[in-house]
Amino acid sequence: MPQLQELEQIFSTNNHSPVFPMLANIYYQKKLYKYAVKICKLGLNQDPENLEGLYILAKTFLIQGEIVKAEQILKNILRMCPFHLHSSLLLLHVLETLNRNEKVLKTYAKKIHGFYPSNLKVQVYYKKYCNMIKTTSKPKKNTKEATSNHTIFNYNPKLATITMYKLLCSQKKYRDALALLKILAKNPKHKKFAKEEEKTIKIKLNRGL
Questions:
Q1: DSSP letter string over the chain?
Q2: Which domain holds residue 110?
């Protein structure tokens, strides 16, 4: 497999290369779990906050039966990035497997529901542990305006990161992305990035994307 060989060559030259999550994920897909763990550990030694690397390591530990280790890593991911959907869903599964307290499950289900209320898997956990039935039949009038006016950044400015910006763009939530850029622009470190991206977002909004 050319991609695998190419990544292996890059990583053998520099085992701190940022490509390590891609390589580890290929090993995971090929069921070469020991190699996946090894690559993740080497990469994370240099970049301990690499979310993708941590997530792949958690998945690998889980499939190896190291459930508690997977739980700890997933909780760590969500401390750094509360809106990480896949980690939240996997953690809820792990918590159920370990028969953790329902209050803990409720906390995580409620938190991820705040970010992804329309996700079907999130809805299942939310209804199961938060004991609330959402009515989805009402017309979603002025959804974009409501999202912009009650955006998550209003109550947690720490979520205003480039990672969050890219996530919003991937979900085509351009109004929230624009609001986030205005916050990033106040940081000298991200000012140039924010100004350049703001033009792109405004073009998308004008086109009605």
A1: -HHHHHHHHHHHH-TT-TTHHHHHHHHHHTT-HHHHHHHHHHHHHH-TT-HHHHHHHHHHHHHTT-HHHHHHHHHHHHHH-TT-HHHHHHHHHHHHHTT--HHHHHHHHHHHHHH-TT-HHHHHHHHHHH-------S--TTHHHHHHHT-GGGT-GGG-SHHHHHHHHHTT-HHHHHHHHHHHTTSTTTHHHHHHHHHHHHHHHHTT-
A2: 2-130
At which residue do the structure tokens 């090894």 appear?
A: 38
pLDDT tens sequence across 103-139 = 999 999 999 999 999 999 999 999 999 975 444 444 4
Q: How many domains are contained in the chain?
A: 2
Tell whether 37 and 74 lie within a shared domain.
yes
Residue 135 lies in a domain: no
Both tokens assigned to 179: 């609001």
CB atoms within 10 A of CB 176: 21
Quote the pTM value: 0.62
